[in-house]
Fold these 2 entries.
Entry 1:
Amino acid sequence: MMTHYLLLTPGPLTTSDTVKQAMLKDWCTWDDDYNLDVVQTIRRTLIKLATPSTGYTSVLMQGSGTASVESVLGSALLPEDKILVINNGAYGKRMAEICQILGLAHEVLSFKETQLPDLEQIAVKLATGGFSHLAMVHCETTTGMLNPLAPVAQLCSDYEVRFILDAMSSFGGITMDVAKLNIEFLISSANKCIQGVPGFGFVIGKQAAIERCKGNAKSLSLDLYDQWHTMEVSNGKWRFTSPTHVVRAFAQALTELADEGGVAARQARYMQNQQLLCQGMQELGFEPLLPVNLHSPIITSFYSPTAPNYDFKRFYEALKAKGFVIYPGKVSDANCFRIGNIGAVYPEDIARLISAIAEVKYWE
Ligand SMILES: *Cc1c(COP(=O)(O)O)cnc(C)c1O
C-alpha cells in the first residue's frame, strides 16, 4: 500500500475514505446505476447550498476549475459587453488572462497581493468605465485573503453591473446567499470545500443569465448555455463523456457535507482549524503573511524562516515523511509557504501537524 499523508493543500485535498470508495466501480455514463438522477440531484443540491431563493440554476462542466471560469467568461460576455476584472492575486490575474486570450472587452484593476481591493477605486471605475460585468475572486488562494464580497456585490448592484464571482476555494466552506448578493454567476469546483476529487467545475447562476449566453460561446466544449440546456432537457446528461467516478464521489461528498451539518458547520470546523494552525505556528515563531483580520478559514501563508540553512524542499520532505503535505508559496514578492486546512482535516490533525513542525525545525 501507498503511504498516506494528509493533503494540506486547497485542492486536490484530503477526502474521506467513503468519498474515495465511491470511485471503486466502473460506472457507465448512460446506465441507470450511474445516472438515476445523480446529476440532477447534485445540481439541485448545489443551488440549495447557494440560496433559498428561486431564479437560480446550476451547470456542471468537465475540466479543472479554470475551465469553468473560462466557460463563464467566454459565454457570458456579449459583443457589446465589457468586464472589469479585480486582480489581487494569481487567480484574479488568470481571469484577466482568459479575457485577453478570448479577446473580450475588459479592464483590469490591480492591487498588491497583500492588499484588499479598494472599494473607492472600484466605485470610480464602475461609475465611469461603461462596464456591464465585474469579476472578482472571493478567497484569493494565492495568499489566503478573503476579498470584500458583500461590499463589492453592493457596488455591482448600485451600478447595475453583473457580478461574476470566482468562489472556487470558498463555496461550501463559507456561508453565502447568491441571491442576496445579486450574483450573476458563481464558479467553484469539485475538489475544494465540497471535498470531492478533481475532474469538474460547476457554475451557479441566474437562469436568465445562462439563457442570455445562448449562441454566444467562444468554444464548443466550454459552451455554458449548451451544457446547461442539455442537462436541463436530458435529465442531467452531459454533452460529452462525463467524469463518472468524480461525479459519484461528488454526490457522496455532498451527502457528507449535509451530515456534517451543512456549510455553517463546515465553516466552523475550518475556522477552528485555521485558528489552531495560526496560533500554533506563531508559537513556533512563524509569522503569517497577512494581518489576522484578512485571513480566511481556507488557507494561510506564512513567511519562510530567514535562517540561512532553511530550504523549503527539505522542510516539505521532512513533513511529508511525518504524514503532512504542505504548499509552496505563490506570492510574487515575498518568500513564503502555505498551509491549507480544508478537506477531511480536523483540529486533532492540526495539533499533530504543529507537533510535527516543531520536530522538523532543522534550521535552528
Ligand atoms: C483552485 C482555484 C481555481 C481553479 O484552479 P484549477 O487549477 O483550474 O482547478 C480558481 N480560482 C481559485 C481562487 C482557486 O482557488
Entry 2:
Amino acid sequence: MKNLKKIKPSEVTPLRIWQRRRLLKGISSLSIAGASLTPSPISLAGENTFEGLKKSPVFSTKEDVTDFQSASTYNNFYEFGTDKSDPYKFAYQLETRPWTVEVHGEVKKSKQYDIDDLLKVAPLEERIYRLRCVEGWSMVIPWVGYQLSKLIKTVELTGNAKFVEFTTVYRPEQMPGQKREVLKWPYVEGMRLDEAINPLTLLTFGMYGKILPNQNGSPVRVVVPWKYGFKSAKSLVSIKFTESQPQTAWMLAAPNEYGFYSNVNPDVSHPRWSQRMERRIGEFRKRKTLIFNGYADHVAHLYNGMDLKRYF
Ligand SMILES: Nc1nc2c(c(=O)[nH]1)N[C@H]1C(S)=C(S)[C@@H](COP(=O)(O)O)O[C@H]1N2
Ligand SMILES: [Mo]
C-alpha cells in the first residue's frame, strides 16, 4: 500500500481529468480578459477551444495529423524529467496564470506582456506543421499561434538586433527536473533574426484548437518546424533581441552534438547516430528525413552559401 499522504491528486483523479481541471482553472482568467477586450476575432469557448481560427493552407502540411493522445503524452520537456512520459505526469504542477513574457534587448519599445495581452498581438491561426526531434521521431501537429514576425514589428528593433534568445521559466518548485543539473537552467534557445522573422516561425499558444497542454509548453512557446525539436523552446518568459549569438542550453551541454543552427538535415549525422530516417509517431515503417524537414521552399534561401556541415 502506498502511503496515502504521499499520493498526488493526479493518482486519485484519472490524470487526464485532473489536467483538464487544472487547465480550466488556469483559463478562467483568460476568458474573463477575453470578454473585456473586444476587437480580437478570436475567443475561447467551452473546453478552452479557440473559436474563429483562420486556417493556413500555404503553411500547413496535408499529411495525417498525429493523434492528440500521443502528442500530449510523449514529450521532451526536461524541466519535468528526462523520460518521455515525465512531462505528461508532472507538468500539471506548473502554474501558467498569471504569467508575463518580457520582450526586450535591442528594441526601442521593450515591454512586459501579460500572457493574455500577448495572445492578442495578432490574430491566431492554425498551422499544421511537422516537428522532428533530433532523436529520430516526428509528429504532425496543428498548432495555434501567430507569426513571431508580428510581435517583432510591434517592439521596433534597433539596428543592433541580429539574434533572438528565448528563455524558459525557471521554477524548480514547480518543475521537478530543474532540481537536477541535466542542463544548465533556465533552458535557453536562440536563432538568427532572419530565421525568427521567417513566416514559418510561430509564436504558439495552442494545439488541436485548444490552449497548449502544460507538457507542450503552455502558456507560450515557439515552434520552428525546419529545425530539430529542441530549438522550439517551451513555456517562455523572455524573448530577447541581441547583437551576439546566444549561448544555448544544448550547446553548453554538448557543443559537438548540438549546434546553433540545428536545421533538420539527413546529410549531417549526429555524432552518435544517423539522421537519414525518422519514425513518424503512430507509424511502424521508418520514413526518409527531408532536408529542412521538408520546408526547403520556405527556408533554404536563408542558408545560401553556408557550409551546412560546418554550421550544423
Ligand atoms: N524548455 C524546454 N523546451 C523544450 C524542450 C525542453 O526540454 N525544455 N525539449 C525540446 C525538444 S527536444 C522537443 S523534441 C520539443 C518537443 O515538443 P512537444 O513535446 O510539444 O512535441 O520541445 C522542445 N522544447
Ligand atoms: Mo527533441
